[in-house]
Design a protein that fits this description.
This protein is an alpha/beta fold. The chain has helices at residues 45-53, 86-91, 100-109, 122-136, 152-164, 176-182, 204-236, 245-260, 321-328, 363-368, 391-397, 402-405, 414-426, 444-456, 468-474, 494-507, 534-561, 566-569, 571-601; strands at residues 7-16, 19-29, 34-39, 60-64, 71-73, 140-144, 168-172, 185-190, 193-197, 281-292, 295-306, 310-314, 336-341, 347-350, 374-375, 378-384, 387-390, 432-436, 460-464, 477-483, 486-491. Helices cover 41% and strands 22% of the residues. The strands form 5 sheets. A 6-stranded mixed beta sheet has the order 5-6-7-3-8-9, with helices on both faces. A 6-stranded mixed beta sheet has the order 14-18-19-12-20-21, with helices on both faces. Strands 2-1-4 form a 3-stranded antiparallel beta sheet, with no helix packed on it.
Length: 602
């Protein structure tokens, strides 16, 4: 016997600012559903979830929840007024004999229920809201970006909990790995329409591209039909005016149908200028040690970062990733050890706190008031990679409209704030890019574009992230911080780190767990087979792929420069390709010399 739906929306329409967010929307959530809710930033995902939760009322339509069914919603900005601690808030609404559930969830999500509300960070408040929802265990959970502000360990705990629950849930997230692991159906919000696919997020991009291709084909056919009918209207109507007025009205209907087709929103015009070329050596750190009181952040840590490296820092929240990052770029002094920075460095920083954005000022003022972007004597121009550009035109490159330009930053969604910060970051030339939690709140399309431009960026990237998929796509080296000052350098991204770490752990006898810092080899010191340090051994293992990549890039540049007409057709492209060829050849020579030196030392 079929079970009744947990939630049903019928004929939902909602308009904001004169533009329809939804029109005639019908939606059903069944028991056991595990649904990914996806769409561009600003498409209405969070609004739709609030309609589902009963927190936002539609202009037209009905929301039906059967009697006895409970629907829980994780609030992005929960109201904690009236509560002394985060635990008090999370346990509110629970029977007294079930309050223990909050402590269980809090342990998995890694926050302290005794934290006073007055001193809690935004991330801690969000974790408390998630803990409240998980402890209440409603029949339907509505989760809006639950992984934001969680470290990878907490994300994996939440992933396991949701995988094992029988509770239905609808999930908004930018974390591809999280969505792929958990969802069985997909709701796609796109231009006031919501489409449902009875498969999880895996394969969503292919489905989306297929729909867009079908739309383009239908639009093309309609354009051809309108053109044909319009030609007939001009040439043939006069002789048969009375008989053919129906055909004229049909032509008008076609034109109205064409004008009602809403064009897809483009992608943000993300672009990075690597500026002047830095020296081959970007960062050389030896013996770094840092503690706060009794808490060791890092002990005796060595690393060398070369031009073009993409280094990811991973580990639990509060472990010291950002502190290590600041030491490596000279913003914070170590207790011991030394850091040597390379030459000609131009550093650009994307910080997770969004500190470079003034929430009370408008988008316009945030750009024109930035000393790095200001144009002398101009209040409507910003300097974009050395060229003045009108502030509204530049904001449109990042998908903001003219009305938003004068709105305060605090009115933006999390994803829109991240996009504005990227606009500030990408206006300045740089050759060392610091990205501290850049993926929070960004939609999948913008993450794809950010990944692509990082792949083409000539400079060096240092990345702190809890997004496993993004780390896999971007990083060439991963530094894992695991507490008590321990750190390890691994070649590759998150999956490579997990595989290498598993292999090392498999070699260590279970009865004798390694007690030494992770920054040393896991095997006993007496068994050390060569004269390389652990970091040098990892670098030696990574260099063949570095060399192969440089050889591939040189081959591609050689094909480009082989065009005899390139200089006359595009002298700027020719010059840049020539410079890149010389740089890659120099880097290849240096990498080969480094490999020979390390191999000889081994």
């Amino acid at each position: 016997m079929a079970r009744a739906p947990l939630l049903q929306l019928s004929g939902i329409s909602l308009t904001f600012g004169g533009n329809p967010l939804f029109e005639g929307l019908d939606l059903v959530v069944q028991p056991g559903d595990r649904v990914a809710l996806v769409g561009r930033n600003g498409s209405g995902k969070s609004t739709l979830m609030k309609i589902m939760a009963g927190l936002t009322e539609a202009d037209v339509g009905n929301r039906v929840v059967p009697p006895g069914v409970t629907v829980g919603y994780m609030e992005q900005d929960p109201d904690l007024s009236g509560f002394a601690t985060l635990g008090d808030y999370a346990a509110s609404g629970l029977p007294e004999d079930e309050a223990y559930k909050v402590s269980v969830v809090a342990e998995g999500l890694k926050f302290d229920p005794e934290t006073p509300v007055a001193s809690a960070s935004g991330g801690e408040r969000r974790r408390a809201a998630l803990a409240k929802l998980m402890a209440e265990a409603p029949e339907l959970m509505l989760l809006d970006e639950p992984t934001n502000h969680l470290d990878i360990q907490a994300i994996q705990w939440l992933e396991r909990e949701l995988a094992e629950t029988r509770t239905a849930f609808v999930l908004i997230s930018h974390d591809r790995a999280f969505l792929r692991a958990l969802t069985r159906a997909t709701l796609w919000v796109d231009r006031a329409e919501v489409r449902r696919r009875e498969q999880g997020f895996d394969g969503f991009e292919e489905w989306r591209e297929q729909i867009w291709a079908e739309e383009d084909e239908a639009r093309h056919k309609l354009d051809r039909k309108i053109k044909h009918e319009a030609k007939w209207a001009v040439e043939g109507i006069s002789a048969r005016r009375k008989r053919n007025m129906g055909r004229v009205r049909a032509l008008q209907d076609l034109r109205e149908q064409r004008s009602s087709m809403i064009r897809r929103q483009g992608t943000a015009a993300l672009e990075l200028d690597s500026g002047t070329t830095s020296g081959k050596k970007v960062i050389d750190a030896k013996g770094l040690t840092k503690s706060y009181g009794d808490k060791a952040i890092i002990r005796d840590f060595d690393i060398r970062v070369l031009r073009g490296d993409r280094v990811a820092f991973v580990g639990p929240n509060g472990i010291g990733k950002t502190t290590l990052l600041k030491m490596l770029i000279g913003q914070e002094a170590p207790d011991a050890g030394e850091v040597s920075l390379g030459t000609n460095l131009e550093i650009a920083v994307f910080d997770q706190s969004r500190a470079r954005l003034d929430p009370e000022a408008s988008l316009w003022e945030n750009l024109t008031g930035d000393p790095l972007m200001s144009v002398s004597g101009a209040s409507d121009q910003v300097m974009v990679r050395g060229t003045p550009k009108h502030v509204v035109a530049y904001l449109k490159d990042f998908l903001f409209n003219e009305l938003q330009a004068r709105a305060p930053v605090k009115s933006l969604s999390g994803g829109e704030k991240a996009r504005l910060l990227l606009a500030k970051l990408m206006a300045q030339p740089s050759n060392l890019l610091i990205l501290d939690e850049p993926t929070n709140d960004l939609d999948v399309e913008t993450l794809d574009l950010l990944q692509d431009i990082l792949g083409e960026y000539d400079g060096t990237v240092l990345l702190v992230s809890h997004d496993r998929d993004f780390i896999d796509r971007v990083a060439t080296t991963t530094i894992a911080l695991e507490g008590q000052g321990r750190a390890t350098v691994y070649a590759g991204g998150w999956s490579d780190y997990q595989a290498q770490r598993g292999a090392v752990e498999a070699e260590v006898p279970a009865a004798k767990p390694a007690a030494k810092p992770v920054s040393t080899p896991a095997a006993p010191a007496a068994k050390k087979p060569d004269g390389l340090s652990f970091t040098e051994r990892k670098r030696l293992d990574a260099l063949p792929e570095v060399i192969a990549k440089l050889e591939r890039e040189i081959a591609k540049l050689g094909e480009l420069l082989a065009d005899p007409d390139l200089f006359s057709k595009d002298p700027v492209k020719f010059r840049k390709a020539t410079e890149m060829m010389a740089e890659r050849q120099s880097a290849l020579e240096a990498a080969e010399e480094e490999w020979l030196d390390l191999a000889e030392k081994a």
